[in-house]
Large ribosomal subunit protein bL9 (Labilithrix luteola), 151 residues
Amino acid sequence: MAATLQVVLQSDVANVGKSGELVKVRPGFARNYLIPRSLAVPATTAAVNRINHEKAVAVAKADKAKKEAQGVAEKINGLKLTMARSVGEDDRLFGSVTAKEIESAAKAAGIEIDRKKMHLAEPLKALGTFEIPVKLMTDVTATLKVEVVKK
């Protein structure tokens, strides 16, 4: 009897591997635990080819999403939003400029930005120009320039 058996994991299994990986396990573990619970399938050539195809499709999809995010990042980097707010003495704002207001101003300018992706530590409470990082993907970050002026 073989000391190990190759299986393709269908879902993540602790201390064994992640979904889609080709792993070697003991035959009893595969026969009694992994295969009956549909956590793995035997590593036939068809199963291995299917996994390789799915990985290639996932890589292509990720590349496409990254290119789209880079295109949006270029638009955001070229955008400068001007927010007019009423001010009191010492040029202090009445209220503040929030991420929701910046999101709606960007939408009016023609660019969809999710406010949850803006890394605005706190609302803008002063006049001036601010640079707000917008994290579109794990490795794609843009900088949005927001200028707060007197009304």
The two ends are 82 Å apart (CA to CA). The chain has a mean pLDDT of 91. Residues 68-150 form a domain with the Ribosomal Protein L9; domain 2 fold (CATH 3.10.430.100). The chain has two domains: 5-65, 68-150.
